[in-house]
Design goal:
Protein name: ABC transport system integral membrane protein
Organism: Streptomyces ambofaciens
Domain MacB-like periplasmic core: 19-234, 497-696
Helix content: 55-70%
Number of helices: 25
Largest sheet: 8 strands, mixed
Membrane topology: Multi-pass membrane protein
Number of strands: 26
Radius of gyration: 34 Å
Subcellular location: Cell membrane
Strand content: 15-25%
Distance between the termini: 29 Å
Structural class: alpha+beta
Number of domains: 4
Length: 854
């Protein structure tokens, strides 16, 4: 009990000094809990939606998957005759046919896309009784003919749509127009999908290409009939021809498909929270190390009156426990706030998440509390252990914590060994022949080198800080030299403070190098291989009407179609793979300059011919002249002769197997032919600008596709990588904020530690301005020390990662020096910012009171 009272007294006596450490714990726990609450809320939202919209039993085509559209772009369908058989099955109260397609684009009268913008689908279908389970008509009426359409209220509000407005729907089977006659509102949370409804004949004809067909049947059970019993009866009535699911099975399948996507988000965000926790550990270690050093005499008195080492140890750990409890409790509460903020942010992006569905599972606060408390106590263990080692006489002499020079050299040696091991692993990864093998060594190299730099940090501090000071501080005379000496006074503390900043900046530098190298490699690849003047692609495959508009554009020398086909290949050695083939026009050999190791790519576009990639050829010992069996999904099996082997030392179309459009049509029925994934075009001689303008005008009615020349395409690649990196940098900002708190805390405690010294310096003539400058310079040096280590380490990681990417065709290493230099300079401003409060407090000290401080 005495230990607890002592710990409580010390904790509240130093509550100001504990505050920043508590904030670090709070932020880290908040990010973890916020991630869990946010993802759980999304799961709850979708679970409720799936539960409401799933009928008692659903009948679908055998191979139907809700997240996939068949390769021909038209949803798989069931014949209306099967609906009659389902209705006659025992236990069926009612059954109705539904039509739904997600392979559509809807535009308004101004040709603006009114579909979902959040990544959620745009769904077009017919209005059914089953839709009344999740929606109600709040304006107008349901569609009654081919010129009428109904939209959901969220889409209408977002795009200012009203009754009477005309919409054009672009589907694989053609374009058609209809006027809005009704608006339906969701009675459950709409996660962001845009939904439009037609009458049944119109939906069948325009979305499926034929009447008398449905994408699924919604079956309702008669009273007293269970879903499982109804499923057996329906399956029996349809002779097992179709996929039959109960409401639970259908919801579970949808939930599983969503769960894979949600897990990626969840674990990525938790990974960044883990980085913040790691950075927070250094802050906590520094805080308790300095508090222990400042209470040396107090600890000596405790030992002198009979306290044992274990009691002193426990006293410090109890303080850490209190810190962990306070920070974690506040972090759990803040996490709920973060989740609500993320929901609001997603709503602005088009994904509507209601706070009514806010889900805080029991496990979430438990995880937050346990994680925050355990991490805090573990971080305080080393300072607590050092406190317990202080002998009573040494403490009473105010000798401080034991300064074991031998232990410092052992630590330095261990750090050098770990750093060397990490460097060796990175070198091995860079020299790997396979990316999968190199990735493991890259991961090991990153972990070992990071730990090595952390351990060897105090040793590096003495070297790097002197070098930085020689460049930056010597010009400031005695004040600069004092700042340098203060930074070097406790290398272990400086190393730990710099390491906190190092971790976040190392990741920033690594990702910057990888991202910049990806863009540079892709740009270089485009310059070398792409001969086409224009590239057309979009969020969906290119519908036939857009393809026709492109082919009729004046000023083009040729247009190249490019289609991805589902197929199973059987090589001469009897092995199979189902990675498919690519069908293209012969002009593709002009549009993309693919190097070959055998034969010529143009020969692959002959009758019953194909090409394979060099990796495939090596693995299966395939050569020009060999025959490969290609079983086309939905078509026949062809025996195709290998006419070319393309080099896989590329980033574009690596591993692609090409056939001609004519060969595809020979073995694949017309109704199974897929739309184009991408299309290429080349301008006629001297008509580049005119053709570019004409092509954009031809495809203006189809806003889901982008027309890009090579300059546009390169910029688009750069923008896409930039957006991804900015998102990652935003998540890493949490770790950097925690690191800044560490610098602030270190300086604040250092000022308290040096109170008497500061008083003496002021007494002999050091002005307040000079004192503040000294503390600011000390902070800048520490920040630049961490930045230099972090950026150097990160660039090493990034260069190694690029070597692995080179195995996938990304051959250019590009160091983004403007970003690296900008981050380094920014670190100096971070140091200045971190020193504002400590410097201000130091300047306000009363000289006589400071000198009199014990």
């Amino acid at each position: 009990m005495t230990v607890v009272k002592t710990s409580m007294r010390n904790f509240f006596a130093h509550k100001g000094r504990m505050a920043l450490s508590a904030v670090a714990v709070l932020l880290s726990v908040a990010f973890v809990c916020g991630t869990l609450v946010f993802t759980d809320t999304m799961n709850t939202t979708f679970d409720k939606l799936f539960a409401v919209t799933s009928s008692d039993v659903t009948v679908m085509p055998k191979d139907a998957k809700s997240e996939e559209t068949p390769q021909n772009g038209v949803p798989d369908a069931l014949p209306a005759s099967a609906l009659e058989r389902v209705r006659q099955a025992e236990g069926v109260k009612s059954a109705e046919g539904a039509v739904a397609s997600m392979n559509v684009t809807v535009v308004d009268a101004d040709n603006d896309n009114v579909g979902a913008t959040s990544g959620a689908p745009t769904i077009a279908g017919n209005w059914t009784r089953n839709d009344l389970r999740s929606m109600e008509i709040t304006s107008g009426h349901a569609p009654r003919g081919p010129t009428e359409v109904m939209v959901d209220a969220d889409t209408a509000d977002k795009h200012d749509l009203a009754l009477g407005d005309e919409l054009r729907t672009i589907a694989q089977t053609g374009d058609f127009k209809a006027r809005i006659v009704g608006v339906a509102s969701f009675t459950v949370t709409n996660p962001g999908a845009a939904v439009i409804y037609f009458d049944t004949p119109t939906a069948q004809r325009e979305l499926l290409g034929a009447t008398g067909r449905f994408t699924q049947f919604n079956v309702t059970a008669a009273d007293g009939v269970s879903d499982a019993e109804l499923k057996r009866n329906v399956a029996g009535a349809t002779d097992g021809t179709y996929k039959v699911q109960t409401a639970k099975e259908n919801s579970d399948e949808n939930r599983k498909e969503l769960g894979e996507f949600m897990n990626v988000i969840k674990y990525a965000m938790l990974g960044f929270a883990g980085i913040a926790f790691l950075v927070g550990i250094f802050l906590i270690i520094n805080t308790f190390s300095m508090l222990v050093a400042q209470r040396t005499r107090e600890i000596g008195l405790m030992r002198a009156v009979g306290s044992s080492r274990s009691q002193v140890n426990r006293s410090v750990l109890v303080e850490a426990l209190l810190l962990g409890i306070v920070g974690s409790i506040l972090g759990v509460a803040a996490g709920v706030g973060i989740a609500v903020g993320l929901m609001k942010l997603m709503s602005t992006a088009g994904m509507n998440l209601s706070t009514d569905d806010l889900t805080v599972k029991t496990a979430t606060p438990v995880v937050g509390l346990v994680l925050g408390i355990v991490v805090t106590v573990l971080a305080a263990y080393l300072p607590a252990r050092r406190a317990g080692k202080i002998s009573p006489m040494a403490a009473l002499r105010d000798a401080g914590t034991p300064a074991d020079g031998k232990a410092g050299w052992i630590r330095g040696l261990i750090g050098l060994v770990l750093t060397g091991s990490g460097a060796a692993a990175l070198f091995t990864a860079a020299a790997a022949d396979k990316a999968s093998e190199g990735a493991l060594m890259l991961g090991a190299g990153i972990v070992l080198s990071l730990i090595g730099f952390v351990v060897v940090g105090p040793l590096l501090a003495g070297i790097v800080v002197r070098a930085i000071s020689a460049v930056l501080l010597r010009a400031f005379g005695p004040v600069g030299r004092l700042a340098e000496r203060n930074a070097l006074r406790n290398p272990r503390r400086t190393g730990a403070t710099g390491a906190a900043l190092m971790i976040g900046l190392a990741l920033v530098a690594c990702l910057s190098v990888v991202g910049s190298s990806m863009v540079a490699s892709a740009t270089s690849e485009l310059d070398k291989t792409v001969g086409a003047d224009f590239i057309v692609q979009g969020s969906q495959r290119i519908v036939p009407q857009a393809e026709k508009a492109m082919q009729e554009t004046p000023g083009l020398d040729h247009v190249t179609r490019y289609k991805m086909l589902d197929a199973t290949l059987t090589s001469p050695d009897g092995k199979k793979d189902d990675e498919g083939v690519t069908a293209a026009d012969p002009t593709y050999a002009e549009d993309v300059n693919r190097a070959t190791t055998e034969g010529e790519l143009s020969a692959a576009y002959g009758a019953d011919a194909m090409s394979v990639g060099s990796d495939y050829a090596t693995e299966h010992d395939v050569h020009v002249g060999d025959t490969i069996s290609v079983a086309f999904k939905g078509g026949e099996t062809a025996e195709l002769k290998v006419a070319a082997i393309t080099s896989d030392d590329v980033a574009i179309d690596q591993g692609a197997r090409y056939i001609s459009i004519d060969t595809m049509r020979k073995y694949l029925p017309a109704d199974s032919v897929p739309p184009n994934t991408i299309m290429f075009a080349k301008a006629a001689d001297g008509q580049d600008e005119q053709a570019y303008a004409a092509l954009k005008k031809s495809l203006d009615p189809y806003p889901q596709y982008q027309v890009a020349d090579q300059t546009d395409y390169k910029q688009e690649l750069k923008d896409q990588v930039g957006q991804l990196l900015n998102m990652v940098y935003g998540l890493l900002a949490l770790a950097i904020i925690v690191a800044v708190l560490g610098v602030v805390n270190t300086l604040a405690l250092s000022v308290v530690e040096r109170t008497r010294e500061i008083g003496l310096m002021r007494a002999i003539g050091l002005s307040r301005r000079q004192l503040r400058r000294m503390i600011r310079m000390e902070s800048v040096v520490i920040a630049l020390f961490g930045a230099l280590l972090g950026l150097g380490l990160g660039m090493g990681w990034g260069a190694t990662a690029q070597k692995l990417l080179a195995l996938e065709g990304l051959n250019v290493l590009d160091i983004p020096w403007p970003t690296i230099i900008g981050v380094f300079i920014g670190s100096a401003f971070v140091g200045l910012f971190a020193a504002l409060v400590p410097a201000f407090r130091a300047g306000r000290m009363n000289v006589l009171n400071a000198i009199a401080t014990e």
